[in-house]
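Usage

Read records sequentially. Each one opens with the input sequence:
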Amino acid sequence: MFELFGDSRRIGSDEPCFVVAECGQNHNGDIDLAIKMINECKHTIGADCVKFQKSNLNAKFNAKALNRPYNSIHSWGKTYGDHKRHLEFTNEQFIYLRDYARNEGILFTASAMDSQSLKFLAQLDVPFIKIGSGDVDNYPMLELAANYNKPLFVSTGMHDLNVVKTAYNLISTINSQICLLHCVSTYPTPYCDINLKVITDYQHLFPDAVIGYSGHEIGVEVSLAAVTLGAKVLERHLTLDKTMKGTDHSVSLEPQEFRQMITQIRNIESALSGHKPKYRQESEWMCYRKLGKSVVAKQFLPKGSVLTLDLIDIKVAEPFGINAYKVFDIIGKILNKDVDCDESIQFEDLSPNSE
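and closes with the structure output:
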C-alpha cells in the first residue's frame, strides 16, 4: 500500500480500485480536445485520475525511426516523426493541462516515454509516474525513475516474467512504492491472449507491490474480471469518439461506457466486501417470510398423534409454521391439539415431554 503524492488517496489491497482514464494521445494534438477529455473524466466518468503521454521525440527515437515513411490511414504526417510531432504537446501545454485538471479537482499525470520526459514529469509534481510497457527493460531509466521517490506504475506488456522480475527487483531496492500492471500490448487484444490470471501470479510473486491491470481489449468485461481477481489499479483508454482518426480510438471507451464500467466496478467491490460465513441477510427476510417453507399437516391429525414423515408436508404456509429445516427434530413428537389438513404446525402444538 502507498499514498499518492499530494493526495490523501491510498492505493492497496484494502482500498477501492484506483481507476485511471488513459487519454494517451487520443486528443489528436488538439489542446481543446484534451481539456474536454479532462472535463469528461471528472464530471461524467468519475475516474480517479486522468493520464496523458509525454515524449521527447529525439530522446525516444533515433533519426531513422523518425524519418521512416508512415502511410497509415491514422497518420498525421508523411513520416513517423511528422506524425508524432503533430500529437505531442509542449511542456508549457502540459503545465497548462496539469493546472486545469487541478482546478477541476482530478489527479493528473502522464506516461514518461523516455528519460527526458521522466525528468520533466518529476518536476511537474505529478502524484505518480507511469512507465509504459516499452520501457520495462529500459533498466537505466527505471533506476532513474525509482530515485525520484515517487510512486511508479509500471505496465508489463511485451515482456516475459524474467524481465518483469528484473525490473521489479531493480526498482524495489530503491523505491517501495510500486504498482505492476498486467498488460498485453496488442490493439485490440484478442481475448485468448489476455492471460488474466497473470494478475494472480503477480500477487504471489510480488506481495509488496500493488497489482493492477492495463487493458486494450474491446469491451469492459475483462476489466471487471480483473477487478474481481483483485486488481487494485485499472487503466483503460478514453476517447470522445471511437470513430475519430487515430490508432487507439477504436480500442478505447467512450465517456458513458467508461462511467458504466466504473459503476460496475464499485458494485463488484460492494459485493466482495465484508466476507463472512454464509447466513441469511437482513434483506432476505421479506422473501423468506413470503416464500420460505414450513411444516403442515398432510391430513387431519387428532390430538395425541405421533408425528411421522408420512403425516406431514413442507409448504409455503400461512401462518408460517415450524421451519422446514427443523422437520427431523419434530419426528416422534406428540400433538397436544387437533390439527386440520394443510394447517401449519407450531411448536406450541407439540407436547413438551413428547419423545
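Summary fields computed downstream for this record:
- The two ends are 60 Å apart (CA to CA).
- DSSP finds twelve helices and twelve strands in the chain.
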